[in-house]
């Protein structure tokens, strides 16, 4: 089945490269995304069923997965160059998240060795993955227009599955490895070394272009707001740690140029503060929100509160 799906993905990528499907680009993206979801679901089912797979079969499966990843990345590259309408942007965003999900699933079900090899394969396509990840926001970069306000209405801003894994990895890094209260999920997150390696590459590349950094950072901030609204406070803390420690540190002067991210933080900060105050007796969740607030506070104080105060003084 995986071989057949790989052949189909090759056909779609080749047909797109030859401009045969110029009128159906969004459908190609959606079809490819659904194929990737099916492949990931099959990986999960085989793992749960604990089927006995020979080493030779495993090698064949990996070759198909590697080829599928390459064809999807090629399609993403072509679409980002050729198509600028909103449906293609949404399709590119959905597809790139499935590529991240595939890396995570391979690492979870087949092991780090295979996932690391996939990360090596996908390295040349990381710039395209970054553009696809920020594609929904790149056209919205005006000082008074953030992305958080419409996140609940736009399905593209719902949390992708790999964001949960990323949040878990960030929480592991943040906490003392000798702490007695490490959760089972945190312990599991330590295994996602291939994802961590891929995200580190992405973070490094993002720092070379503030416009794209702003768009991608806003996606993570919007997702942290979505997690806050869903009461997933560990995800909130993990994603905010990634943004405020890995992407842009609070003291970085780049914040002045990151209009979308500042607009997002302007919405998130008071909501985190209010949620912490309104929590009942759950001290663990309250501490997560206090930690999240502490990550945002320097940016809020330096780039949002001060600007508001100066604006009022000028009036």
Structure, explained:
The protein is an all-alpha fold. It folds into 2 domains: 1-132, no CATH class; 136-315, no CATH class. It has 13 helices and no strands. It has helices at residues 2-17, 25-49, 55-82, 86-109, 112-122, 126-133, 161-174, 184-189, 193-206, 210-229, 233-247, 259-278, 283-314. α1 runs antiparallel to α2 (25-49). The protein is globular, with a radius of gyration of 20 Å. The model is unreliable at 148-156 and 184-189 (pLDDT under 50).
Question: How are the secondary structure elements laid out?
Answer:
Layout: H1 2-17, H2 25-49, H3 55-82, H4 86-109, H5 112-122, H6 126-133, H7 161-174, H8 184-189, H9 193-206, H10 210-229, H11 233-247, H12 259-278, H13 283-314
Task: Put the structure in a nutshell.
The protein is mainly alpha-helical and 315 residues long.
Mean pLDDT over all positions: 83
Structural class based on helices, strands and sheet pairing:
mainly alpha
What number of structural domains do the residues give? 2
- What portion of residues is helical? over 70%
Which H/E pattern describes the elements?
HHHHHHHHHHHHH
Which stretches are low in confidence, meaning pLDDT under 50 for 5 or more residues running?
148-156, 184-189
Strand count, sense and barrel status of the largest sheet are: none
Strand percent estimate: under 5%
Q: Which radius of gyration do the C-alpha atoms yield? A: 20 Å
- In terms of quaternary structure, what is this? single chain
The number of distinct helices, counting runs of at least 4 residues, comes to 13
Separation of the first and last Cα atoms: 67 Å
- The count of strands amounts to 0
Indicate the overall shape.
globular
Keywords: Signal
